[in-house]
Design goal:
The complex is a heterodimer. Chain A is an all-beta fold. Chain A has no helices and eleven strands. Chain A is globular, with a radius of gyration of 13 Å. In chain B, the strands form three sheets. In chain B, strands 2, 5, 6, 10, 11 and 12 form a six-stranded mixed sheet that branches. Chain B is 0% helix and 52% strand. The chains are: A mainly beta, B mainly beta.
C-alpha cells in the first residue's frame, strides 16, 4: 500500500490566492520530509527540507515567504503556495525517507495550475 | 554536493530490444544510488537501489543496474523492453544522513511496437 499520501492531486486556483498541499507519511513517523518541484519535461528540483518541529531548510533561490512549509507533526507536512502566480504552475512532489540513506517514498504529486 | 548526469534526454527502442540508460554521478564518498520511474502525471516509483555490496543490483520489472566506481556510473539495463516500460526514468544520488537526493534530468523512454 501507499506509504506517502499527497493531497490534492490536482488544483486550479486564481492568481493571488493561496493553495495548500498536504503530504502525509502513512507507515512511519517522519522527522524529515522533502518537497520537490518538477517543471514540464524536467527533473525534480529540491525546494526545501521540512523538519518536524522546526523551520524548514530552503534551497538557494526558493522564496521561503512564498512557499510556506509547516511540519507540525511527525506524519504531516504542508506546502502553501502564497499569492500564487501563473509561473507557480507546476508539479509538486513530496517525499519521505525512513532515515539514513534508505529508499525515499514519493507522494503521487500535485498538479498546480494558476489561472 | 552530489550531482547526477543523465546524458540521454530521450531514447527510443523497439519492443523486445535491450535497453541501457546511462547515469553518471559526482560525489566524493561512496554514493547511495537509485533509479526511479515516473509515468505521466504520477509520482516516482523506485526500481532499484545501491548502497553497498554486490555492484550488480536487481530491481523490479526486470531491471538491473551496475555500479562502476571507476567510471562513476550506475547504468540501468533491461534485456527485453515491454511497451509498458515507456516512461520517464530518473537516476538519483543520495549522501549523508537523512539528506536529500539529487536527481538527474531524466531520460524519456519511448517503446516502438
Amino acid at each position: 500500500g501507499a506509504v506517502v499520501s499527497q493531497h490534492p492531486s490536482r488544483v486550479i486556483c486564481k492568481s493571488g490566492t493561496s493553495v495548500k498541499i498536504e503530504c502525509r507519511s502513512l507507515d512511519f513517523q517522519a522527522t524529515t520530509m522533502f518537497w520537490y518541484r518538477q517543471f514540464p519535461k524536467k527533473s525534480l528540483m529540491l525546494m526545501a527540507t521540512s523538519n518536524e518541529g522546526s523551520k524548514a531548510t530552503y534551497e538557494q533561490g526558493v522564496e521561503k515567504d512564498k512557499f510556506l512549509i509547516n511540519h507540525a507533526s511527525l506524519t504531516l507536512s504542508t506546502l502553501t503556495v502564497t499569492s500564487a502566480h501563473p509561473e507557480d504552475s507546476s508539479f509538486y512532489i513530496c517525499s519521505v525517507q525512513r532515515g539514513g540513506n534508505t529508499e525515499a517514498f514519493f507522494g503521487q504529486g500535485t498538479r498546480l495550475t494558476v489561472v | 554536493a552530489q550531482s547526477v548526469t543523465q546524458p540521454d534526454i530521450h531514447i527510443t527502442v523497439s519492443e523486445g530490444a535491450s535497453l541501457e540508460l546511462r547515469c553518471n554521478y559526482s560525489y566524493g564518498a561512496t554514493p547511495y544510488l537509485f533509479w526511479y520511474v515516473q509515468s505521466p502525471g504520477q509520482g516516482l516509483q523506485l526500481l532499484l537501489k545501491y548502497f553497498s555490496g554486490d555492484t550488480l543490483v536487481q530491481g523490479i520489472k526486470g531491471f538491473e543496474a551496475e555500479f562502476k566506481r571507476s567510471q562513476s556510473s550506475f547504468n540501468l539495463r533491461k534485456p527485453s523492453v515491454h511497451w509498458s516500460d515507456a516512461a520517464e526514468y530518473f537516476c538519483a544520488v543520495g549522501a549523508g544522513n537523512n539528506n536529500d537526493m539529487r536527481f538527474g534530468a531524466g531520460t524519456r523512454l519511448t517503446v516502438k511496437p
